[in-house]
Amino acid sequence: MKNKYILAFLFVMGLSSSCKKFLDTEPTDFYSPVNFYNTADQLQIALNGVYSTMMLERMYGQVHHFNFVSTTDEMLPDRATSNETRGLYYTYDAGHSYVQDCWQYPYIAINNANVLIDNINKPAMDEKQRGYIKGQALFLRAYNYFLLTIQFGEVPLVLHQPGIAEVNIPAASQPAIYTQIVADLKEAETLLQGRTSASLGYNDQVTITAVQAMLARVYLYWAGYPVNDTSKYADAIIYADKVINSGQHALNPDYKQVFINLFQDKYDVKEDILEWGSAGAAAGVTNKTGNDIGNFNGIISAILIVNGTFEPTSYAAAGWVRITKKLFDSYEVEPSSTLVNKASLDTRRDWNCPDYIWTTNASAGTRVKTDRPSPWQMNTGKFRREYAPAEIRNSGTYNANWPVIRYADVLLIKAEAENQVNGPTAAAYDAINQVRRRGYGTMYGNIVKNISVVNGGSGYSATNPPLVTISGGGGSGATATAIVSTGGVVTGIKLTSRGNLTTAGPYFTSAPTVTIAPPATGVTATATATITNGTEYLLTPGLSKTDFQLAIRDERMREMCFEASRKYDLVRWGNFAGDLQAFGNYAAADGVTAGNGNINGYQGLITVTSRYSLMPKPTYELNLNKALKQNPGY
Where is the SusD-like N-terminal domain (predicted)? Predict the structure, then answer.
């Protein structure tokens, strides 16, 4: 059940009042604190209203996971520059409407949380429940201030509903903002003791481990640029360890299943510590709402209508961003593979970097899987709408939750902070290797890592390749496709699936048998499979502190790509403009535009400046709040 939030409940200001200052609007169209907050149910309704803000279109429904985070070294947009798409490129200014949204909507949530916190003690009610409501409100206030400070730097710190005369409020320093965020989260940690996603059965409300994971993340950012208070790395370790040692969370053994679950309305309370609940309804319910998860940041596809009826396997996705070759090449490949696109030892590559799009043949009434073999052409594949139920696909209401904090992220925070404080210790290696082990698909056993052609045979059809069967070896679920030359010879075998990576399989104890169907006439091809030995995932031992940090940077890209963290990682690592300029030049030298479509993002990276490490304060806010100063460079 994803529709836990009453969407219409927004105190203080309506969404139509974008031209008004968030700090000086009197409540007129909604309940006011005078006649509300009198019962436990009303407190819960108010809390639901704060939650509902998080997945609005101008929050994580679209803007926060797409518009200002889609031009980095892991993905690039392929849209022509326009006023609408300027948020994708480093060409926006203080007047851009999405810049305004990134400022306004977190403050809407903060203001609603402030009013709730100010009135938390009004009703007579169970004190534990009161604490749970307050703890969640404090988390939501802290989270939105975290969004504001990583995007805008110094911002006004408002902890109570302001009076109408309170207009000119100066920005607080980032250390002051982080101090308040931590204070809110630590109070929430006390209030939410015993509130776990396991006991709730879902993870789109705040729990004790969500608070602790968020504290680990906040301390990691506080330790980095621009505040650079490196003493906070030690605090990041403390709170990452609290989550790790809680016993509440673990990695899903199948990386791709984490993201399939989001579209199938399944709660993975082990891996996903916190999700933002979608602004729609439970799977199977037709409604008029939805979000853009898997649309702009998904695999290109169009809904196919045959004889006036939706073709049930089709779905809509615009696919406005593509992966980078840097991301594709960061995944380790099987050295002995002879394919041009070598088989990857890391199962995350072929999920995140799909080598196809979906086109349609309307006359035949079929969908067509069209190859995109160049990494520069590949869409981002993490969020795949094709896994949503057919009734959701056909109605166009893809109500996937957004993964806010995953257990894998906590492990990588632990590894990075441990390295910063103590160097690449065994604890640091263990944390990163847990993530890598799942990535390599070998949490519980070995998988097929490569299939080599022994004899290419003859007489095969390049347009209708033979069936490849993988059997025996104690496992199951591995599938492959034959690659046939125009001369009718099998030149390679491409692994197309690692199967359903659960504790039941497809893990192998010995190399399975590969069978290639014979041609109508000619010689049958043969091939052999090789399985992993169970140690491929291990990070190179004996790295220096500097090299381990570089390994963390790459691992975060491989694991967390497209989850709206890469830009902010580059900022906190302290060389945002330099890193992106270097990547822009690499992309140009690697032929990003040669036959690869309209990938505009790299051009702006070549000349990007450090001013874009922060967004500009929006023009409308500067005009209203005379005590506010614009960020440098704008």
Answer: 21-220
Rounded distance, CA 514 to CA 480, Å?
A: 9
Q: Maximum distance among all alpha carbons in the chain?
A: 87
- How far apart CA 38 and CA 225 sit, in angstroms, is 44
Query: How many CA atoms are closer than 13 Å to the CA of 581, on its beta-carbon side?
Result: 10
Please check whether residue 413 is in contact with residue 556, taking contact to mean a CB–CB distance below 8 angstroms: no
SS3 193: coil
pLDDT band at 387 (very low <50, low <70, confident <90, very high): very high
Taking the mean position of all CA atoms in its chain, how far away is CA 322? 15
352: how many CB neighbours lie within 10 A of its CB?
A: 26
Q: Which domain holds residue 465?
A: 448-531
> Do 393 and 452 sit in the same domain of this protein?
no
**pLDDT, tens digit, 9 for 90 and up, residues 67-110:** 999 999 999 988 876 666 667 889 899 999 999 999 999 999 99
User: In this predicted model, what pLDDT tens digit does every residue of 394-412 receive, in sequence order?
Assistant: 878 788 999 999 999 999 9
Q: How open is the CA angle 570-224-380, to the nearest 5 degrees?
A: 25
pTM of the model: 0.92
Three-state secondary-structure class, residue 469 = strand
Chain centre distance of CA 235: 24
Q: How many Å apart are CA 524 and CA 87, to the nearest integer?
A: 54
Can you name the residues that pair with 305 across neighbouring β-strands?
310
Task: Give the Cβ contact number of residue 478 at 10 Å.
Answer: 26
If asked whether residues 314 and 386 sit together in one domain, one would say yes
Count of domains forming the chain: 2
Q: Are 527 and 514 in contact (CB under 8 A)?
A: yes
Asked if residue 626 belongs to a domain, the reply is no
| Cα–Cα distances in angstroms (integers) from residue 150 to residues 145, 178, 455, 480, in the given order | 9, 10, 56, 44
Whether 507 and 444 have beta carbons less than 8 Å apart is answered as: yes
- Residue 475 in any domain: the answer is yes
Neighbours of 38 (CB within 10 A): 14
Q: pLDDT for 411-462, tens place per residue?
A: 999 999 999 999 999 999 999 999 999 999 999 889 998 899 999 999 999 9
Q: DSSP per residue over 323-358, as a string? A: E-HHHHHHS-B-TT--SSSPPBSSTHHHHHS-SEEE
What is the C-alpha end-to-end distance of the chain, expressed in Å? 44
DSSP characters over 484-530: E-TTS-EEEEEEEE----BTTBS-BSSPPEEEEPPPSSS---EEEEE
ω into 541 cis (within 30 of 0): no
Amino acid identity at 374: S
Distance of alpha carbon 340 from alpha carbon 30, whole angstroms: 61
The whole-angstrom separation of Cα 98 and Cα 583 is 26
Residues 317 and 394 placed together within one structural domain of the fold: yes
Q: Is residue 42 part of a domain?
A: no
Q: Domain boundary at 484, 509, 531, which?
A: 531
Neighbours of 188 (CB within 10 A): 28
Amino acid occupying residue 96:
H
Distance CA 175, CA 154 (A): 9
Give the count of beta carbons closer than 10 Å to the beta carbon of residue 175: 12
Amino acid type, 128:
K
562 close to 380: Cβ distance less than 8 angstroms: yes
